[in-house]
Amino acid sequence: MGGGPKPEHLLVILPFNAPSKILERIRRKYPYVKITFHQLLFTETPWKGRESVPPEIFHDATLLITLSALPPTPQDCPKLELIHFTSAGTNHVANSPVYTDTTIPLTTSSGIHGPQIAEWVLLTTLASSHYYALLESWQRKHSWGKDQRCLGLLRNVNDRVGQRLGVLGYGSIGRQVGRVAKAMGMDVIAYTANPRGTPESKKDHGFIVPGTGDPDGEVPIAWYSGTDKADLHHFLGQDIDHLLVSVPLTKQTMHLLGKEEMELLSKRNAFITNISRGQIIDQPALIAALRAFDDHVSSKDLHADGSFAIDPEADIKVDTTIPGLRGAALDVTDPEPLPPDDPLWDAPNCIITPHISAQGSAYVDRCFQVFEVNLDRRERGEKLINVVDRSKGY
Question: Which of 198, 260, 294, 312 could connect to 155 by a Cys-Cys bridge, CB 3.0–4.6 Å?
Fold first, then answer.
């Protein structure tokens, strides 16, 4: 009798050209795997292909790597045993019959996004707090920048030391942002749905890019948990200066942050960063909080002659009388693409980017690395990593 792994047929459906070197690596490493690549270009609508994928293409596949394309029905994929997504979440396919009506294991590329997204978080946060738009405008104008009001702004820049980062959803991305924030002198606190009271429960059991993240959960100085408003409000009331939103989008997290939550964060005029999904934040409530801060500061910080009113020699302290949020950085919005006339574009002190924070030269290779880890585990009969729990939605 012959031994070795059984023949497999890997179908890869992605919105870009075939990653030839990566596919060749898989062919050499797993000679029993036949690979079929299908390119599916996207429309401007997120996750939507320009054309339908022929159902018959799924029929003989035992393995599937995809961003969003799935078989139309379970009957179209009778041999499929594993689906690997190149995204961190699966909310965009949660209504697919293959998601709802089968038990085919689903795995994600969670864990690969941390390094790139953490750099985006750092970039946008510092660009806001250090008034980079102002500095860049000076360079474009060939100006040395001697405007006293603007220099007053720069004299009052707060660095990160001693500030508090609250990570709402301490997954792989939150762990890498937490690691970077701690290196900059910040306190980090974490919020998760389930309690993490033991050292083992605090560990990251998913895919980890070597040298990154918080594998043992040692970065946070405090952990908070829960699934109701009272638990969330207790966390948001912990003197947070910067809130990172990195929870998955589920029915429970839809509009998780609204008017009440903005008011709690306004205690310290927090800065909000959202790299998860736009629907987690009530955008009108966010816009109102940003405007409240901007309206108050604009009127308070200027003398009648237009000069800056803050004493550059004074200690910087949180002014609890100022309402609202001092700024936001959003890589995700609701909807996407954000319509040109949406008021979010003009919200003060708000940086918006088109859902690109995870993009980088290592993205695709790391997606396939997660798949290869699971292919090895599957061959050895071991538990897979990054498996989606359909009951939780992530």
Answer: 312
C-alpha neighbours within 13 Å on the C-beta side of residue 309: 10
Buried b (16+ CB within 10 A) or exposed e, 145-155: eeeeebebbee
What does the DSSP 8-state code read for residue 357?
Answer: T
- How does strand 242-245 pair with strand 164-168? parallel
Helix (H, G, I), strand (E, B) or coil at 268: helix
Residue 35 bridge partners (DSSP): 10
* pTM, rounded to two decimals: 0.88
> Strand, helix or coil at 244?
strand
**Which of 165, 161, 162 lies closest to 176, judged by CA?**
165
Q: Position 265: which residue type?
A: L
Cis before 335? omega within 30: yes
Distance between CA 20 and CA 15 in Å, rounded? 14
The total of other beta-carbon atoms located within 10 Å of residue 302's CB is: 15
d(Cα 266, Cα 259) in Å, to the nearest integer?
Answer: 10
Whole-number Å distance between alpha carbons of 239 and 102: 44
Q: Is 104:51 a contact under the CB 8 Å cutoff?
A: no
Residue with token string 């909807």: 335
**Cα-flanking dihedrals φ and ψ of residue 262, to 5°?**
-65, -35
Q: How many residues in total does the chain contain? A: 394
Identity of residue 190: A
What average pLDDT does range 48-63 have in this prediction? Answer: 88
Report, as an integer, the average pLDDT of 304-319: 42
Contact present, 35 and 58 (Cβ < 8 Å): no
Mean pLDDT of 241-249: 96
Name the burial class of residue 267, with classes exposed (0-12), middle (13-18) and buried (19+) by CB atoms within 10 angstroms of its CB: middle
